[in-house]
Amino acid sequence: MTATGHEHEFVWPGAEGRCECGANVWAIQEVLDAAADDARRVAGEAHYTGCRVRNESENVELWLFDAPSRVLQELETIRPGVYVIHHDAPRSYAAVLELMDTLRDDLLALSAEGINVVGFGPTHDGYLHVEVMGDVPTAQARLDSMFGSNVAQVDYGEPARAF
Q1: pTM above the 0.70 mark?
Q2: Distance between CA 134 and CA 95 in Å, rounded?
Q3: Quick one: which of 7, 24, 96, 125 could link to 56 by a disulfide (CB 3.0–4.6 Å)?
Q4: pLDDT tens per residue, range 31-47
Q5: Is residue 24 a part of any domain in this protein?
């Protein structure tokens, strides 16, 4: 990949995902997906939190938790200029998965309290995102009491519909 000096604007349909400069979204995606895989491998379970592939700027936005400087150096060495690193995630992806397991175990108890969780999952930056039907502030307070503050991010959600 080469630096283009601009953010790509991919044209759909007809141009098959090409930017005015000629860049192809699929070629960029392939390279950035490999870079994202490399980042996860290099950071390891203890430090990797998540990433976002940014085709328009040809980089991988990467969130890390408590990574040593050798990890940061290796990432820059293997893919110079590709990573935009946020080294401020509050916890690793593995830790968020553990939180999800705890939440899954408590869904019936939360429902009995009137907190109807309709979805949950990790965010790329190290939080547990939870969607509830009903009173969001009450659900946020309850999850804060379970996990501590600044762990779960609660939003209103609707149950998924089968089509």
Answers
A1: yes
A2: 27
A3: 7
A4: 889 999 999 999 999 99
A5: yes
As a whole number of angstroms, the distance between CA 90 and CA 125 comes to: 8
Which residue range(s) make up the domain with 116? 93-156
| Residue 69 shares a structural domain with residue 120 | no
Regarding beta strands 83-86 and 48-54, do their DSSP bridges make them parallel or antiparallel, or are they unpaired?
unpaired
Tell me the residue type at 66.
D
Do 104 and 58 share a structural domain? Answer: no
Residues 113 and 60 in one domain: no
Q: How far is it, in rounded angstroms, from Cα 77 to Cα 145?
A: 42
Name the residue among 124, 121, 127, 125 with its Cα closest to residue 100. 121
The full length of the chain comes to 163
Which CA distances in Å does 153 have to 63, 86, 103, 133? 17, 19, 13, 14
